[in-house]
Design brief:
Keywords: Membrane, Transmembrane, Transmembrane helix. The protein is mainly alpha-helical and about 70 residues long. The protein is about 85% helix and about 0% strand.
């Protein structure tokens, strides 16, 4: 049950950062810092991967672990 809850929480975090990045990116301080440091395209890609894609994949893995590999 812990893995399911944690997985859902992490997935919501990934979705939240995606929505905030689209609606008001100025609220994401690290997003602006990454764009300034690595350039617009690379900074955006790094932020999307690290704060949206990875959390959603991690959440899915945690949920699958809880469902398919529970003891």
């Amino acid at each position: 049950m812990l893995y399911i809850g944690l997985g859902v929480l992490v997935i919501f975090y990934g979705i939240y950062t995606a929505v905030i990045r689209l609606k008001s990116p100025e609220k994401l301080g690290k997003y602006q810092a990454m764009k300034e440091r690595y350039g617009d395209n690379t900074g955006k890609l790094l932020h999307v991967l690290s704060y949206t894609v990875v959390p959603i994949i991690l959440g899915a893995v945690l949920i699958c672990r809880a469902v398919f590999f529970s003891v």
